[in-house]
Amino acid sequence: MPHHPLRFPAFLALLALAAGCARSSDAPQALTTAAPAGTPPVDTSAAMARPAPTGAAPSCEHPFGLSDGTELTYQLLNEKNKPEGLQILKVARITPHEAAKKAPAYTEVLLKSSLYDASNRLQRNDEYVYLCRRDTVLTDGRLLLDPAMLRSFRDRRFAYEPVHLAWPNQPTAGALPGGKLTVQVSSPSVDIAQVITDVSERRLSGPESITTPAGTFQCYKVESRYEYVTQARADIARRSVKRVVDYYAPGVGMVRSEMHDADKEPDHTAVLIKRTAGAAR
Predict the structure, then answer these.
(1) What is the pLDDT of residue 3?
(2) I want to staple 105 with a disulfide (CB 3.0 to 4.6 A). Which of 20, 31, 94, 99 is the partner?
(3) Does some domain include residue 5?
(4) For the chain, how many structural domains are there in total?
């Protein structure tokens, strides 16, 4: 999923996912290329009127229909539905891995993420990995991190233990496995705290039609419970709970991600506004 400055790392963007969930036949066609990572993105208002490329058929050779150089641009919106920044995910490398012993073959996708604020100023660059094996894409568990949870731990060491989120290429309605990210915060001499994001109660439904500036997509809806925990000691923990609704198309990736607070009020949203096809292999 895309990464919001407050919750989404990059799916967002994401994160930079099927029979029945491919691109709509009447969806618009190709878009212009987004600004390269590390430079301020161009005005996206023009892109909103331009069509997007057709998504590739879902397979583990090209997870989410991604190819070398594919770019996904997400508009990040605040609780008032006002623009709060952009996240650009670009495929840097796709690496197939052959089956070994009892381990199945899988494909690894390295994504470069650039996060910009509302004034198009670069805030941070990150790298994330997607994996695909058999019929499932696994998005990097580090995308579950809310960076604000680490702001109070300046100049500390962070060790990440992710459990990736699964997105079926050929989904059926029902429950999905959860995910988790544990960040161990320490100094050179002592453990300080654990910062945990626990994703549970994931349920899939659909497909349904979702329209964004990038086009119209037949998407699956995944509803989840996100619990954020900062635990300094076994008996001391600070907790908060959010509800997240993700819309994904297996041949495209994440199309829209909505976060709501415990009272179901809007929190933050990430929307795919541009998808630039890469080079097919």
Answers:
(1) 45
(2) 99
(3) no
(4) 1
> Any idea what the CATH number is for the domain that residue 254 is in?
2.40.360.20
What is d(CA 196, CA 231) in angstroms, rounded to the nearest whole number? 8
Sign of CA dihedral 214, 215, 219, 225: positive
Q: How far apart are CA 110 and CA 279, in angstroms?
A: 15
Say whether pLDDT at 12 is over 50. no
Residue spans of beta strands (DSSP E) within the chain: 11-12, 14-15, 71-77, 83-97, 106-117, 122-133, 136-139, 157-163, 165-168, 174-176, 179-186, 191-212, 215-233, 236-249, 253-260, 266-276
Q: How many CB atoms lie within 10 A of CB 20?
A: 12
Is residue 4 in some structural domain? Answer: no
Interval 17-46 mean pLDDT? 32
Does residue 104 belong to any structural domain of this protein?
yes
Rounded Cα gap, residues 235 and 161, in angstroms: 22
Tokens of 265: 């009020």
Q: Which of 78-92, 124-138, 199-213, 266-280 has the lowest mean pLDDT?
A: 266-280
Contact, 251 vs 58, CB < 8 A? yes
Within a domain: residue 165? yes
d(CA 22, CA 253): 10
What pLDDT does residue 281 have?
53
Q: Over the stretch 74-83, which tens digit does the pLDDT of each residue have?
A: 999 999 999 9
| CA 118 distance to own-chain centroid | 19
Determine phi and psi for 263, rounding to 5 degrees.
-95, 10
What's the pLDDT tens digit per position in 103-121? 899 999 999 999 999 999 9
Tell me which residue range forms the domain holding 208: 11-276
